[in-house]
């Protein structure tokens, strides 16, 4: 079986045909999915979905760097309550995005660091969004080590080795199949297998041959096929390695039904 460790079934582009999306995922042997929040409402929706589909959908709750300005004590308090449930497996997605710079960097740092401290307090792993901020993000995590995943890896192989040396996992999705993504493929082959996770980031970044179309969790299998070819493994081996990696990083995924 495969686990999509990062999707947005809480996004309006996937909400309308959720039942069909889940059917296609199960048919592709994608049996568990982490629905990742990016602001307060989408985190609530991720939580709601994880309750409605217990054992299949799990939630991560967090404030994305784009929405860093919304972070406040009331959200922190609500996250503390949600995080105590079996359904919430991680704090995320959180991080730094210096590509779009939709929030002032000072606010991005403030929200990111506060949520890292919250994850530490709650003993939860983190799902990290990072764009054009790899040096800054990894330096921060080097000084505050936490279990986590760098989702939708887009750094260099050198940065991948640095992340792995900090104990972080690297999440690979549709970009692994993009012809221009040499750094992504080189990163996926230069770290030990125990650091690899599968994801889609659906509805974004659909793999080839669906590039440009809406992504969905079933396509995790296409990413797994690409990873198997790159690493010279059977699809079954990739399934088993990445599932074990996901269970190790997100213990609640394994312990819940
Ligand atoms: Zn992201
Ligand atoms: Zn995402």
Detailed description of the structure:
The protein is an alpha/beta fold and 257 residues long. It has a single domain, classed as TIM Barrel (Alpha-Beta Barrel), CATH 3.20.20.140. The protein is 45% helix and 17% strand. The chain has eleven helices and eight strands. The chain has helices at residues 12-15, 18-27, 40-52, 73-83, 105-122, 134-143, 157-165, 182-190, 220-231, 235-249, 251-255; strands spanning 2-7, 30-36, 57-61, 88-97, 126-131, 148-150, 169-172, 196-198. The chain has an eight-stranded parallel beta sheet. Strand 5 (126-131), helix 6 (134-143) and strand 6 form a beta-alpha-beta unit. The protein is globular and about 45 Å long. It starts with a strand and ends with a helix. The mean pLDDT is 97. The structure holds zinc ion (2 copies). One zinc ion binds next to loops. Residues 6, 8, 36, 93, 201 line the site of one zinc ion.
List keywords for this structure.
single chain; 257 residues; alpha/beta; TIM Barrel; 8 strands; 45% helix; 17% strand; binds zinc ion
Short structural summary:
The protein has 257 residues and is α/β, with parallel strands linked by helices. It is 45% helix and 17% strand.
- Binned, the helix content reads 40-55%
Helix and strand sequence: EHHEHEHEHEHEHEHEHHH
Question: Strand order, biggest sheet?
Answer: 1-2-3-4-5-6-7-8
User: Regions with pLDDT < 50 over 5+ consecutive residues?
Assistant: none
Number of strands: 8
The main pleated sheet reads as: 8 strands, parallel
How many helices? The count is 11
């Amino acid at each position: 079986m495969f686990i999509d460790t990062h999707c947005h079934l809480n996004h309006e582009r996937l909400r309308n045909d959720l039942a069909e999306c889940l059917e296609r995922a199960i048919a592709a042997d994608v049996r568990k999915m982490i629905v990742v929040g990016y602001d307060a409402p989408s985190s609530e929706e991720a939580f709601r979905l994880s309750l409605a589909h217990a054992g299949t959908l799990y939630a991560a709750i967090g404030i994305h760097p784009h929405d860093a300005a919304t972070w406040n004590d009331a959200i922190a308090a609500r996250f503390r309550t949600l995080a105590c449930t079996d359904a919430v497996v991680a704090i995320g997605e959180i991080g730094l995005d210096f590509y779009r710079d939709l929030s002032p960097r000072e606010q991005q740092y403030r929200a990111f660091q506060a949520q890292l401290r919250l994850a530490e307090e709650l003993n939860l792993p983190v799902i990290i969004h990072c764009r054009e901020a790899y040096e800054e993000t990894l330096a921060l995590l080097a000084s505050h080590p936490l279990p986590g995943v760098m989702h939708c890896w887009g750094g260099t192989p050198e940065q991948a080795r640095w992340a792995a040396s900090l104990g972080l996992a690297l999440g690979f999705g549709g970009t692994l199949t993009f012809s221009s993504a040499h750094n992504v493929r080189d990163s996926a082959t230069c770290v030990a297998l125990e650091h690899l996770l599968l994801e889609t980031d659906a509805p974004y970044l659909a793999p080839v041959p669906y590039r440009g179309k809406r992504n969905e969790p079933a396509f995790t299998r296409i990413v797994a096929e690409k990873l198997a070819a790159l690493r010279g493994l059977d699809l079954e081996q990739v399934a088993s390695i990445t599932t074990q990696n996901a269970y190790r990083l997100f213990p609640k995924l394994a312990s819940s039904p």
